[in-house]
Amino acid sequence: MGKKGREIVGLDIEDLVNSLNQALANEWQSFYQYWLAAHVVTGEGALGLSEQLRKIALQEMDHADELAKRILQLGGMPLTNPREWAAAASCAYVEPPENPADLKQIIKDGADAEVCAIEFYNKLANKVFNKDSVTYQIVVRLLAQEVEQEDAFDDMLPR
Ligand SMILES: [Fe+2]
Question: Which CATH topology does 12-74+85-156 take?
Answer without folding.
Answer: Ferritin (1.20.1260)
